[in-house]
Amino acid sequence: MASASASRELRPDGKLRLPPGQHLTAGWPVLHYGSIPRIELASWRLHAWGLVEEERSFTWEEFNALGQTTEINDIHCVTTWSKYDNEWQGIPFRAFFDAIGVKPEAKYVMLHSFGGYTTNVPLEDLLRDDVLFAHSHNGQPLTPEHGWPLRLVIPHLYFWKSAKWIGGLQFLDRNRPGFWETYGYHIYGDPWREERYS
Ligand SMILES: Nc1nc2c(c(=O)[nH]1)N[C@H]1C(S)=C(S)[C@@H](COP(=O)(O)O)O[C@H]1N2
Ligand SMILES: [Mo]
């Protein structure tokens, strides 16, 4: 695709499809800190704790039974690559939220991954319709390096917020920095405002 026209394309909401300072990549780069965690589905659990009425722990079968959806979206890494038209399948965040009792004081969520990675997101951002826990990409199960068995996908924020190997969500009343955020990445990370570092 010619970069001149690609960079002027608008989305239905009127925003530039390609956020400022980004370029398109055809492949799918792998980016993470540390090594790929070893996970087995039989012992896999997704935990919810913090400001919830009751701590919850879902098995793989229980979590998938919450509901399934398909979303197609673009992803934007802070290191300036963007990848268009990703088809994700998985569990809508809203279905998970509706299944657990979150206290009204909860305003932020710390995402916890197997292997220790963390990243922070406001709860209202996770409640957007297009946010999901993805187990598949373009019709195939995620590969280990892209987050198998489950990753979050939050398309309106830089991709470091989309935690791979997600294993836990901690509900908080205050915003706390996650892993990259403590090393100077922006606390929120809106690609259209170029909130890369702070
Ligand atoms: N658990 C975990 N999730 C992570 C990361 C990480 O280091 N650990 N890196 C983030 C960053 S910076 C990016 S750009 C995307 C990369 O996802 P990909 O490797 O599937 O392209 O994963 C995000 N999720
Ligand atoms: Mo990234």
Write the layout of secondary structure elements.
Blueprint: H1 3-6, E1 23-24, E2 46-50, E3 56-58, H2 60-64, E4 69-76, E5 81-92, H3 93-99, E6 108-113, E7 118-122, H4 123-126, E8 132-137, E9 140-141, E10 151-153, E11 166-172, H5 179-182
Would you mind describing this structure in some detail?
By secondary structure, the chain is of the alpha+beta class. The protein has a domain of 137 residues: Oxidoreductase, molybdopterin-binding domain (Sulfite Oxidase, Chain A, domain 2). Helices cover 12% and strands 30% of the residues. The chain has 5 helices and 11 strands, in the order αβββαββαββαββββα. The strands form 2 sheets. Strands 1, 4, 5, 8, 9 and 10 form a 6-stranded mixed sheet that branches. The longest helix has 7 residues. The radius of gyration is 16 Å and the shape is globular. The protein binds the ligand Nc1nc2c(c(=O)[nH]1)N[C@H]1C(S)=C(S)[C@@H](COP(=O)(O)O)O[C@H]1N2 and molybdenum atom (MO). Molybdenum atom binds next to loops.
